[in-house]
Specification:
homodimer; alpha/beta; 434 Repressor (Amino-terminal Domain); Rossmann fold; 3 domains; 6-stranded mixed beta sheet; 12 strands; DNA-binding; transcription (chains A, B); DNA-binding (chains A, B); Peripla_BP_I (chains A, B)
DNA sequence: CGCCAATTTGGTAGCGCTACCATCTCCTAC
DNA sequence: GTAGGAGATGGTAGCGCTACCAAATTGGCG
């Protein structure tokens, strides 16, 4: 007669408690919760009453263990504070809040190694889907993604050869469009200023270069980059460097809006007329760009929508209805504003 | 002779595989991984070799189920895109990245109901600790926190009566300090502009009011608020409203830096001299405030550090070394800049 | 009226791990 | 020489849930 060992779980009600109270088998409770249409209405009602009365909440860990599938979306982004990724993440959260899926969010700090580590960790949870930023995974990461056994969505960019699905846009085209706009507006000595030169920034730079070369205006001295994390203050400093290097500079395509804002502020401070003396184009089109004085031309990207679409595609794949379009290009819009209106 | 049912788990190695390969019991492998000092060095080495060879990664779900404790920190914030919370979250992530703990992040959208729902959900996972933003939980949420059976840290604010532990600062004092600074600088018709009037904003407003009343300057018409989510463009609009209402306005304390930036831009646009005609003070001191032209006075808050401290306190409590100081006030700093230097 | 299929319900056997207790060795103390 | 304790290792029995299969019930049809 071994004494019934105290319940380790701390006394929260289990599915067995609900089953007992409702006078049914445990498996029926499980079904009533997951596939209500397969249980008669009467039992469903009884079970719901028992659930409410006991305050039963299923244990996701037990569920994941028994079904070999956790109701978790793994999400990997390079930064939590960069507004761009924060918006994508918000789109993901909003799309998933009404679903049973939880989110496991990882911050790679722009490190391939960290990405591998997190992918390994996430994989051990058997997630229902994985959403990762970027398309330049290391070979090891790519292998992990391919063998994850769940839908995978690469976001922020489009490119050939997706692991599974993709939602984003072409950063190269964005960079080109921004630069062409400056050239069309009459700017000639157009610089590129970019911090945190991640793969997406590299492609924007490539777009800039393509446009400049096509116009016969490219000059390597016009390009100013740094691997340092982007910020408004960095934008200001880099602009000063760029101007010192090329005093005839008359326009800048900034890798992102933070940099552009730093440039704008420095122009104010140094009494450089915008858009007359210098034209400025940013990237991403944060809310503040249209409010700035002068308002700043920027490439509007659809970050929130990228998050939503990624979830929608993953959900469809989970439901077995894999979208026929595996690569979704959400594009971008050039927002022409005062900073380039000369 | 029932055929051995195919492994549901999809063939990833389990602790039993490692044990077999290392020639030890499963429980010894478990111990070697969790409490290496309790296993002889020789076995430890053998086990590590087997783990590496098989690429074994423990299943966190099984672990959580067996130990009735998930290695998860539940984190609840009202917004993912607000830079202030993003910084706190980043501090939490950075502090936890080297630990075995995962993070479950929830977005309450400033809704008490949503907070309750998420708390309920998180509770079902038996988290190792909970970190929640704010101190104004609904009674139901507070009950959930109190019965969570794990350390709880309320962040962003300090106040009496913590559920368990607290890290933050006094928003009332911050609001008062900002307003007193404007008054000392000689501004008299000082307005308050605040969007998204959450409890913290309310307390900043209370600080503003206290300072204005102490100086005999308070006038309800100086206060402009809205429940709408804060943004730079909203800041611009609200400032125009405020100015229309009180044309003699000569200073503004903005509920946050986004609003302050909107005010600054509108001043540029309307050729209102800053700091001569209007003084501006923000709140939080985002990087861009010191770069802006003119640079903007703001209340610097230690968001990242709040995240780090919250984790440190929770970790200490988990380890049984509950910090003797349950309420940590990290304070704030008034950064005097050009926008109030007249 | 019996047979088969469809529908609803339940029992059993794990999922992969760890809590708990038992065992075994080795060492110290008297 | 033996008791007692500390340290290392292992076995057993679940944790709470669901996959799989079996059984019971219902209904349609020849």
């Amino acid at each position: 007669m071994t004494k019934p060992r105290t319940r380790r779980g701390g006394g929260r009600p289990t599915i067995a408690d609900v089953a007992r109270k409702a006078g049914v088998g445990a498996i029926t409770v499980s079904r009533a919760l997951r596939e209500p249409e397969r249980v008669s209405e009467e039992l469903r009602r009884q079970i719901q009453a028992a659930v409410d009365e006991l305050g039963y909440v299923p244990d996701p860990n037990a569920r994941a263990l028994a079904s070999a599938r956790a109701e978790v979306f793994g999400v990997l982004v390079p930064s939590l504070t960069n507004n761009v990724f924060a918006e994508v993440v918000r789109g993901i959260y909003d799309s998933l809040s009404a679903s049973p899926f939880r989110i496991q969010l990882g911050n790679t700090h722009y490190s391939g190694l960290e990405e591998e580590r997190l992918l390994q960790l996430f994989g051990s949870q058997r997630p229902a889907a994985l959403i990762v930023a970027g398309i330049d995974q290391t070979p090891a990461s790519r292998k992990l993604l391919e063998s994850a056994g769940c839908p995978v969505v690469q976001v922020m960019e489009t490119g050939p050869d997706p692991v599974d699905m993709m939602v984003g846009f072409s950063h190269l085209d964005g960079g080109r469009a921004a630069t062409e706009h400056l050239i069309e507006a009459g700017y000639r000595r157009v610089g590129f200023i970019g911090a945190r030169m991640d793969p997406r920034s590299q492609r924007r730079l490539a777009g800039y270069r393509a446009a400049m070369e096509a116009a016969g205006l490219f000059d390597p001295r016009l390009v100013t980059t740094t691997p340092v994390l982007s910020s408004v203050s960095l934008g200001r400093e880099m602009f000063r460097d760029a101007l010192a290097k090329v005093p005839t500079l008359d326009g800048v395509f900034c890798n992102n809006d933070d940099i552009a804002l730093g440039v704008l502020f420095e122009c104010h401070r140094a009494s450089i007329a915008v858009p007359k003396t210098i034209g400025i184009v940013g990237f991403n089109d944060l809310d503040m760009m249209q409010v700035a004085f002068p308002s700043v031309t920027s490439i509007r990207t659809h970050r929130y929508e990228i998050g939503r679409r990624a979830v929608a595609m993953a959900l469809a794949a989970i439901a077995g209805k894999r979208p026929e379009q595996r690569i979704v290009d959400l594009g971008f819009e050039l927002k022409r504003r005062e900073s380039t209106a000369r």
